[in-house]
Amino acid sequence: MTGGAALPPSGLPGLVPAWSRLVTAPDGDGVKRTWHVLDSGTASPVVTLLCLHGNPTWSYLWRRLLAAAPAQWRVVAPDQLGMGYSDRLEQPRRLAERIADLGHLTAALGIDGPTVVVAHDWGGPVALGWGIEHRAQLRGVVLTNTAVHQPAGSSGPALIRLAHLSGLRDAVCVRTPVFVRAATRLSRPPLSPAVRDAFTAPYAAASRRRAVGDFVDDIPFAPGHPSRPTLDRVAVDVCPPDVPALLLWGPRDPVFGERYLDDLLDRIPHADVHRYEGASHLVTEDAPEYAAAVVRWVHDLSLASAHDGGRAPAAEPQASTLLSRLEARAGDQTPAVVEVGRRTVSWDLLERRVREVAAGLAATGVRPGQRVALLVPPSADLTTAVYAVWRAGGVIVVADKGLGLRGMGRALRGARVDHVIGTAQGLLAAAAMGLPGTRIGAGTIPSSARRMLRAWTTLADLARLGRTRPPPERPAADDECAVVFTSGATGPAKGVVYRHRQVEAQVALVRATYELSDDDRIVAAFAPFSLYGPALGIGSSVPEMDVTSPGTLTAAALADAVSAIGATVVFASPAALRNVLRTAEHLSPAHRQALGAVRLLMSAGAPVPATLLRALGDVLPNAQPHTPYGMTEALPVTDISLAQIDAAGAGDGVCVGRPLPGVEVTVSALTPTGLADGPLTGQPGLLGEVCVRAAHVKERYASLWQTQRSSGRDVGWHRTGDVGHLDDDGRLWIEGRLQHVIATAAGVVTPVGLEQRVESLAGVQAAAAVGVGPIGTQQVAVVVVPAGRKPRRPGVATLELTDQVRIVAGVDVAAVLVCRSLPVDIRHASKVDRAEVREWADRLLAGRVVPSGPE
Q1: Which are the contacts of 43, defined by CB distance < 8 A and separation ≥ 6?
Q2: Cβ-based neighbour number of residue 132 at 10 Å
Q3: Cβ proximity of 596 and 621 under 8 Å
Q4: pTM of the predicted model, to two decimals?
Q5: Hey, is 461 helix, strand or coil?
Q6: Ordered alpha helix ranges (H), 308-458
Q7: Which of 638, 634, 674 is nearest to 655 (CA)?
Q8: Cα(289)–Cα(291) distance, rounded to whole angstroms?
Q9: Is residue 770 scored above 80 in pLDDT?
Q10: Roughly how many angstroms between the first and final C-alpha of the chain, as a whole number?
Q11: pLDDT tens for each residue of 28-74
Q12: How confident is the model at residue 2, as a pLDDT?
């Protein structure tokens, strides 16, 4: 033996000494060994979590999970032999031996009840091997950044393959601590020096690092490797369908990247997934909230087991009706989609092209349930692609171009797309983003460019092929049909999964609420909404504008789009409408006549000031203004007209109207520190997080199990993240976002009402209210954009402006600051990024160097 087992030194951050114990048990060869084990020591536990580290970490990796687990659970995290503070070894241990070692240890520890294995890195195959041999005990599997097989086309992680070379292996893994220290250098933000030192503490001497090199040597890259048969067996039996699984992943891992996650999901398709954006290899360090996710997931397992016997039998599948209105217009030569200034596509042509392309997609390998990224600007091609993918049973994946190339790439890779449909520019972007899947061209792409872009076919090719092929089987109403991404205005964009039945319910609600008929036509300046035209049974056109910049919509462009299709309805964001108003003086008499035919104006995406809607009366004189309230996860939820806004009067926040038919709205009351922990209630006047239940609410978030579990923790309800209250007449008032609530010593303050009062001042163009300081004792700071001449330098406001703001604010205001503009989201150019404003204000008030402004 090259070194005995020992207890870790005291003072390691987050490690409770009482958890550590030394356990003697035979290894897989019958030789007595001593393990160091972290053990919560619970007697007669409800469930045991068996946690296994990889290489070159040790049981310290699981300290947060031991701290977070309920008292009635047992959490056991051993150091594998040769690793951490367990016995050092004379000879290397192969995978099969390590699986046997773990079995002998759990027997010595008396682990014989329901067990969930939790594993990271190369601890994954060992723990999964234990699960195969202890199937009767296995209740669940939790994996973090690991692998059981090399994905197709992969020769293995480059960093590990380098370390695997015999000459380098000894140098970087044993004789020097390069490999050990490298594992702790992958995190962003960097780990604290104390935590890095804790991870490397067991490996201070070369004699204690021998197993680090042996572990690397045991990775079976080659088919003839001694551990290859064992790993192959684990890969085949990795997790049976009746064993729940949770995959928690750091997408930035240079060792086990997303292709390893994809490989695991191919093997465990029933697994729940949560991708922690920004997290790397040590996801348990980069995303410490993982521990709460594991606890909640395992807790849900026990609830599911208790109710398994009460499940209702599955209903007979119903066919989707999303395409029924489009199919009913076959033979209709009136416009279905108008590309202003380019082309008009009739209902008859659109229906035929959708049917043909769908058959072509099915004939060339697009299978039901596969995800198809659409990198096509608003156009007839985009509309055709959407409905053809749906008709073929596929799932469209739509990410806003406004996210930027990096944001789009992160979103689309996380959605696990199988195919990409794009214009030449879109397919270039797909290559730059590293998207997987086959490529399908949209629009005109020269053959030479197609080869470079790997576009093996085009929509036109698919239509020609589809003319001679039978149509694919219709999708069912309960099949998934779309993954659409949020704007990313309040954090990384989230993929929202919808089923056909949910989109069907949404379409039916919109059609009924706004009394849409086949005689209506819509101009959708918010591009995603234009895609609903065929499902609604109404023609649509998209005005000439940069769809990623709503403020580029001019009054003339809007009028041209209205004229092109004879529109009766307009849907645009507040930012787009502001520019329409600014450019309205240039309208010709013909433009004004066209705009006079619009009967309905809808605006959403951010609070819509009544003053803006009133002013638009000169541009759209016969249009009744409505502002539906909702979000990517549920739209619409409520609706209010300008007349109803006027009737509601002033209040604390924005009145968004009453819930629509079939929609239920409640609130979850806030704690003094701004948490939404209260029970759901419709009590008037109670401030809380707005919660919604309706048939058209999203199915779930894509690859964000923890986020979905939090937003849907009240079964059947979606927690919106918005904060507000219901009034005595059942109207909903929105007062801000949950993460923007200001928790002062006197109670919580919501920003929207405060900002509205400040913006009522003659000298104020815009305002943002934020909290600076610790939660519970935050101070209110108001950042103002003055009307007229902007300040040359952002900073503290004049005494006169400060006094005016404090008089109207209605709450104690610690500071008033001024800047040239406020940062807003890209999709709507209307939602203020209060997090950025808060960070800027906090730095300025602390006397630190600040940028020229929060914009």
Answers
A1: none
A2: 16
A3: yes
A4: 0.92
A5: helix
A6: 324-328, 347-363, 380-391, 404-414, 424-433, 447-453
A7: 638
A8: 5
A9: yes
A10: 63
A11: 899 999 999 999 998 899 999 999 999 999 999 999 999 999 999 99
A12: 47
